[in-house]
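Researcher: Let's run the pair from yesterday's discussion. Sequence first, then tokens, for each.
Model: Starting with the first of the pair.
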Amino acid sequence: MAKPVYFLLGAIPVVVALLIAVPLITKNEIPMSAANSNDKIEIEYTKHQLKKISNGITERIGAQKTEILLIKNDGDIKYTITEKGYPQPDIKSKIDQKKLDKIKALIKETGFISIDSNSFLVFENITDYQKSSVKITLNGRVNQIHWPELNATSDFIPPIISMVESELDKIMSEISE
């Protein structure tokens, strides 16, 4: 009779631990507590739509379209677009503090600023592809990463790069509409 009681008493801490751990493990959001109001951040995100142009013997890569998103620490945004060599008027806007804190938390909590800034190789035979770049200055520490789209390289691009890219693309699309 004592064995089932011990079993039941031993199972209680296991159940409590599972109730605490499961939500933490399955939660896919970055905790906002990582964003500190004293943090100084500046983000410069660039997307290039590149095309390989062949002139007989020589080849060069030219940008068909370039988009630049600059986010300042105070939430000011500047969006610049150049299509076929012609710059369009800049769009200035402001990001709300909640979105800025979300990006700060994403960058800080995931260690994005510590990612090695090595280059990713692009396939030789590819003619059209997108290449992105993000330069982040966080509390005076600068990290700049360049990467091609996934179908233009065989290199492993860390998922955190894709997460940051996705968040910045959302901001770009909101501004350009």
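Model: Moving on to the second of the pair.
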Amino acid sequence: MRDSRGGQNLLASIPGHGTFTMTAEAVTMIDVFGGVLHCYLGNGGCRKQGLYFSRTEPKKQLRCLLNGPEREESHTGDEWDLLSTGDEMLISVSHELAPKLDGAVLDFGQYNKIQRFVWLTMPAVKGPACTCLRSIGPSAGKRSPCLDDQRIGLTDL
């Protein structure tokens, strides 16, 4: 797998929890956002748990190992260091989300007329998929607001 500069997907490994794929479009946007992306669960949305993304890495997270031809992994003690011939990229996930991501696909694109990161697939999550790709779990009811962005066109930042 080549990184975004080669237009290919990148594989991210969560220590102790499996792997997920980042599309070339997602990797490109993570680079645009400074090379840092944190993925986590929260309340809200049309389902019980919302799927969120942040450019700020929290103190307690699981850092992903990135596999591609220009990226190497090294393990020193209890921390994983990412080495790259180009810019460093840091992807992390919350402890609550990590077990749900094995086999998942992270993408960035135009979804519901809004540019956003989405999980295209999450095979580890059983049950109905949310049509807005931003929540998981059983429906929270008709009165729950569906997550929405400010419609500002993130690639224009």
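Researcher: Give me one sentence on the second I can quote.
Model: The chain has one helix and twelve strands.
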